[in-house]
Amino acid sequence: MRLAFDVVVVGGGPAGAVAARQLAQNGAGVLLVEASRYDRYRIGEVMDAYGRYLLCQLGMEHVLESVKAVQCDGVVSAWGTDDLAVRPAIKNQHGAAMILNRRRFDAALANEAARAGATVWLGTVATSVRPTREGFLLELASGTKRTGVSCERLVDATGRRATFVRRLGGTQRIRDRMVGLGRRLSASDDEKDAFQSVLLLESVTQGYWYSVPVGRRKVMAVLMTDGDLAKIARPWRTALVSSAHTLSRLEATGKRSKLDRWDARSLISREPAKLLVVAAGDAAMACDPLAADGIVRAIRSGQAAAVAVMAGADAIHELGAQRQRAFTEYEAERANTYAIERRYGQLPFWARRLPPSPPVPITIDPLALVRAVEATAASRARAEALIDPSAVRAILRSAGAEGRTAVDVLARARAASPGLTPDEKWVSALELLVRGGALSTDS
Ligand SMILES: Cc1cc2nc3c(=O)[nH]c(=O)nc-3n(C[C@H](O)[C@H](O)[C@H](O)COP(=O)(O)OP(=O)(O)OC[C@H]3O[C@@H](n4cnc5c(N)ncnc54)[C@H](O)[C@@H]3O)c2cc1C
Question: What is the pTM of this model?
Answer without folding.
Answer: 0.93
